[in-house]
Write a structure and sequence with these properties.
The chain has 224 residues and is mainly α. It has 9 helices and no strands. The chain starts with a helix and ends in a 7-residue tail after the last helix.
């Protein structure tokens, strides 16, 4: 493999990491509070708002139901309005973030729902406000599960980042399509696949390690 292709692989790997990092950050920024709200806003819950919960739930489900490659194409006008262009690494962050937000929200919602209800009732009995319960009970107790959920989200975003290469999103997917497929260079395609596998394995290992560390530091009242 030539030095030029090696440089292209390094550049494409950097572009993929950039897309995944920014979309993960933005997806968590919006998806985390959305997931918490979905978990605590059903009828009879901590912040009961059943109609708002239903509307947000429908929006989340509708977004998650659209295949990612179709979503990328469908929101091209929106992407162009936000990023100024519909192609390139920065533009790819827009659909990646839109796909990440509902995915992360559902993962966070499930993690919050797994928290022992007795802990919430105990906090209520001590006079804690809903926001104190969220900050001091729900989030700390659900943090290990949330960490694993975010790990799954990052792994999914790595796969999505490869898909945006089909529509000019740059990164490893774009390199694999342009060189591995269109120019009939199977060695480039093989290297791209190996790099993606290594990235996924690294993310999974780091996520599991962080989750274990967080779990050890979590409050010990769980299930007691």
């Amino acid at each position: 493999m030539s030095a030029n292709l090696i440089n292209l692989l390094l550049q494409a790997t950097g572009q993929t990491l950039y897309m995944v990092a920014i979309s993960t950050f933005l997806g968590t920024l919006f998806g985390l509070p959305l997931g918490v709200f979905l978990a605590i806003s059903q009828r009879g819950e901590l912040l009961s708002a059943p109609w708002v919960n239903k509307v947000l739930g429908l929006v989340v489900n509708a977004t998650r139901s659209v295949p990612f490659i179709i979503l990328v194409v469908a929101i091209i006008p929106f992407t162009r309005a936000i990023a100024g262009t519909s192609i390139g690494t920065t533009a790819a962050i827009v659909p990646l973030t839109i796909a990440a937000v509902p995915f992360i929200a559902r993962l966070v919602e499930n993690a919050i729902r797994e928290v022992d209800g007795g802990l919430i009732e105990a906090a209520r009995a001590m006079g804690a406000t809903p926001f104190q319960i969220i900050r001091k009970v729900l989030i700390p107790e659900a943090l290990p599960a949330i960490t694993l959920g975010l790990t799954l989200a990052v792994v999914s975003l790595i796969g999505y980042s490869a898909m945006v290469g089909a529509v000019g999103g740059e990164g490893l997917g774009d390199l694999g399509i342009r060189y591995g497929y269109q120019r009939f260079m199977p060695d480039v395609m093989a290297v791209v696949v190996v790099i993606l596998i290594v990235l996924v394995q690294l993310v999974q290992s780091i996520g599991e390690w962080i989750s274990t560390r967080v779990d050890k530091r979590a409050p010990k009242g769980r299930g007691q």
